[in-house]
Amino acid sequence: MRRVLVFGNSGSGKTTLAASLRRDYGLAHLDLDTLAWQPTSPPIRREPAASGRDIRAFTAQHHAWVIEGCYADLLALLLDDATELVFMNPGVDVCERNCRARPWEPHKYASAEAQDGNLAMLLEWVRSYPTRDDACSLASHRHLFDAFDGLKREVGAGQETAMDDAGLQAQIAGARAYDALFVASITGAFAPIVAEAAAIAAGDRVLDVACGTGVLAREAEARAGAGGEVVGLDPLPGMLAVARERSSTIAWREGAAETLPFPNGSFDAVVSQFGLMFFQDRRAAIREMRRVLRPGGRLAIAVWDGLASMPAFAAEVALLQRVAGQRAADALRVPFALGDRSVLACAAADAGIERPSIDTHAAQARFSSARALVEADLRGWLPRMGVSLPEPVIQATLAEAEDALAPYVTASPDGGVSFATSAYVLRATAL
Fold first, then answer.
1. What φ, ψ does residue 160 adopt, rounded to 5°?
2. Cα 24 from Cα 16, distance rounded (Å)
3. Beta strand 267-273 with 205-209: parallel, antiparallel or unpaired?
4. Burial of 113 by CB count in 10 Å (0-12 exposed, 13-18 middle, 19+ buried)?
5. What residues does each domain of the chain span?
6. pLDDT in tens, 76-115
7. Left, alpha or beta for 199 (phi > 0: left; psi -120 to 50: alpha)?
8. Which tens digit of pLDDT belongs to each residue from 389-414?
9. CATH number of the domain at 171-429, please?
10. What is the DSSP string of 19-72?
11. C-alpha dist (Å) from residue 329 to 14, 260, 323, 363
12. Of 25, 105, 381, 412, which is the most exposed, with the fewest CB atoms less than 10 Å away?
């Protein structure tokens, strides 16, 4: 799930990049210019607290987003929520040329003439970017960029610098933890179930949407065989890096479910395991999956059942709420958002899926200990949701894990944890 902050001088290309991310990855888009100013003449900055409330309302409504602007004071409010930063810094000359060539922006100016009338003042403001000391200055943007520990990159004049290596490595480490601690213990058990629901057979061309580290794609490849082809698509480069480590014969693609980069009728089967609940536009994502299926192609989508059906996870959510706080607990609740058969059926109907079937499937989750279960979420799942806890909070939560999950500790000598899980699997055939 991507939550991207794009910032830089006026004319640096923020809006162009944000629009591209919105289109390519299905992200909700917010331009901070729309809430940073009072509707007065001349315009006056709103109080940051008021703008902050509007920003929080936006992020509460959308799980995946791109937010652009030049206001470091407002952007700083989002550093804990963002998964990545893009600092647009092409230089003052480029920004000035872009401002002169800028088309009319109706969300900022009542008319093209009004925009042109403000050009001289805008250019003066752009030229002072390196020397100003306000919230929109180069110094403030540099400080914001340096303060962020996650995935980040700086776009200079004429080229984009390489993705920040430390941030990418952190994302890859999170993906490896997710794969080793969580896929191996719980989600991997559903890969054969979903592949079977899609009736994947030898020679099939298969797409795995929101593939993560690729457990379902690898199952599909085993069934499609040498004569088939499997493509795994995910929006997170860290997940795909680990997926490539696991298999070099699957085609791994970065992209969003809402805008699949494939022609109509490209696949015999499309599968998606535990991803639909995180998509920004579920209806658009399902429609896209249907679009890329050939006539007679098979669709299979798995989502988790509700928390009420899995009391072990309900106990873990309560533990996180008590020790790690609201954001951590909410991040663990998100996977169960479609845990209602009627909600899933409505999502499919809204997307134009005719006569789907929805079946409940069970699998046993097995972790080496209660601590291992909770650690799988703290170090593997929460970072994927943009929640990275300080180490002392992680340790405090782990210290209470055994007591919180005591009912699920087995009688075996190793003291492992085992409990039933369930998921809905939606199946449909393209007409």
1. -100, 130
2. 12
3. parallel
4. exposed
5. 3-163, 171-429
6. 999 988 988 999 998 898 898 888 876 666 656 667 777 7
7. left
8. 889 999 999 999 999 999 998 866 66
9. 3.40.50.150
10. HHHHHHH--EEEETHHHHEES-SS-EEPPHHHHHHHHHHHHHH-SSEEEEES-H
11. 33, 31, 9, 24
12. 412
- The H or E element spanning position 251 is strand 251-254
275 within 8 A of 209, measured Cβ to Cβ: yes
> Residue 233 corresponds to which tokens in the numbers above?
């698509």
CA dihedral 312, 313, 315, 320 (to 10 degrees): 150
Average pLDDT over residues 278-286: 86
Report how far residue 424's alpha carbon sits from residue 115's, in angstroms, rounded to the nearest whole number. Answer: 53
- Nearest CA to 367 among 184, 160, 173? 184
**C-alpha distances in Å from residue 381, one per residue of 39, 67, 418:** 42, 23, 19
**The token pair that represents 309 in the structure block:** 């059906």
Q: What band does 40 get if pLDDT is binned at 50, 70 and 90?
A: confident
Q: What is the DSSP letter of 334?
A: G
Classify 273 as helix, strand or coil.
Answer: strand
Task: Check residue 219 and give left, alpha or beta (phi > 0: left; psi -120 to 50: alpha).
Answer: alpha
Lowest mean pLDDT among 10-14, 38-42, 60-64, 389-393: 38-42
Using the structure block, give the residue that is written with the tokens 């799942």: 381
Phi/psi at 12 (nearest 5 deg)?
A: -85, -10
- The two structure tokens encoding residue 136: 């929109």
CA 35 – CA 52 distance, rounded (Å): 9
Using the structure block, give the residue that is written with the tokens 């599909």: 220
Which of 375, 254, 363 is closest to 324 using CA atoms?
375
d(CA 27, CA 160): 21
Q: HSE of 358 in the Cβ direction (CA atoms, 13 Å)?
A: 21
| Angle formed by the axes of helices 92-100 and 119-127, nearest 10° | 170
Please give the distance of CA 353 from its chain centroid, rounded to a whole number.
25
Characterize the bridge pairing of strands 44-45 and 37-38. antiparallel
Among the four given CATH numbers 3.40.50.300, 1.10.645.10, 3.40.50.1000, 3.30.70.270, the one describing domain 3-163: 3.40.50.300
